[in-house]
Amino acid sequence: MNEKSVDTRWRMAYHLMPPTGWLNDPNGLCQYKGTYHVFHQYSPEWPTGRERGWGHFTSPDLVHWEHHGMAIHQDIPEDASGAYSGGALVERDAEGHDVLLRLYYTGNVKEPGDYDYIHAGRQANEIEVTSEDGYTLSPKRVLLRNADYPDFLSCHVRDPKLWREDSAEGSYHMLLGARDLDDHGRLLLFDSHDGESWTYRSCPTSMEPFGYMWECPDRVVLDGREYAGFSPQGLPDEEWRWQNESNCGYIELPEGVRLLDVDRLDQRDFVEWDRGFDFYAPQTFVDETGRTILLGWMAVPDVDYESAPEGLGWIHCLTVPRELTRARDGRILQRPVAEVASLREDGRELDARGTTTLPHHRADVELSGITGDLRLTLDDALELVCEDGAAYLRFLDEAVGAGRTERRVRLGGVASLRLLVDESAVEAYLNGGREVFSTRWFPRRDDLTVTLACDCASARAWVMRDVMGNTYTH
Prior knowledge:
Elements: H1 6-9, E1 21-32, E2 35-43, E3 53-59, E4 66-72, E5 82-92, E6 98-110, E7 122-131, E8 141-144, E9 153-167, E10 170-180, E11 185-192, E12 199-202, E13 205-206, E14 213-222, E15 225-233, E16 249-252, E17 264-265, E18 271-272, E19 280-286, E20 292-297, E21 314-315, E22 322-326, E23 332-336, E24 344-349, E25 355-358, E26 362-368, E27 371-378, E28 382-387, E29 390-395, H2 398-401, E30 406-410, E31 417-422, E32 425-430, E33 435-440, E34 448-455, E35 458-464
Parallel strand pairs: 1-21, 13-17
Antiparallel strand pairs: 1-2, 2-3, 3-4, 5-6, 6-7, 7-8, 9-10, 10-11, 11-12, 14-15, 15-16, 16-18, 19-20, 20-22, 22-23, 24-35, 25-34, 26-31, 26-35, 27-28, 27-34, 28-29, 29-30, 31-32, 32-33
């Protein structure tokens, strides 16, 4: 390793990460009055500080970001143990102009005593703050408490997702993740006529047990079809699926069926968002152009590998923003938003049967027209292999992987690959984003080597500009 500071050598160039401290779930994603807002779970004094609230990024274009520090603190009795995850709702006037940003989150409270904090001893309070300018927040308003939830639920209720859709019960709808007293994951739905007073609607679950808790619920609509997104905890690790302790994915609803009217979800239709080591708690929003955009946390709870090697004063990052589209068979395709390509410079052809060296660990690699097997290796430390109807993301260097080993998915074949490398993050999009692998890694070299063994029509790479440097000086 060179003389570069340990604390700076793995900082991101174009992925969102905080100047210091701990980042996790993306929260409150929206575009409000032309500006993109990405809030996130934040502990700025990590590893010593205990505060858990919301940090705040803004951007005019999804690639140039400014970090504004803490936006929501844990500063009332109803969020004394943390301002947990939640979502945003943009209110518009009759002419379609943005007039109010509403943010909803779960205030977590662990009561003192001998409790398990699952079935007793925890408050889950749904709280709202509003803003007219996107930055200055109103006083907090507590909307829901434990007593408002069905009595068959445990104390694990959290992560509100909001949307507007006219129904007999109201035009505002809130979706929460939950765990019942039998340790089965559930969704929890409430309705409202004003976004402030809420009425219980339903509590869907799966046809068969499917994890003990469903976190970070989402509702996605693509081409008129609705999807239920959620992060089930406790699925059994299998060879080809559910390879993390906590996973996340979606279920497409039948044509014409709304999430509001669902009673049971067929867990056999569950599709994982990402097959990599580091992806969890994704959240989506629709921007002013009508695109559905997703960001995820590049980490997973309860794993035995590292995301902060010794010497770092920060931990974790988010994925790049991903545009979602629907394939003919209902599969959701994920691609980096088009704006990411604006960071490309110094493009060059790759040797499809050899090694190419790039000057930095920040690159955008594209392969198209692939026929047959594929092997791509970065720094002789991390390889992506597609062969025999499967794809494998595999670490060859234990230090670079920091405890990560292998992730895999069945794949009929690979025709295209896009690979984003950003210092200590890698995202691999196979077949137009039909499958994705995301992982952290901690390379030791100054330059990046890309070794290919494949037949393809085109193999190119671009060095990516560093647009996050100014964020770390604030």
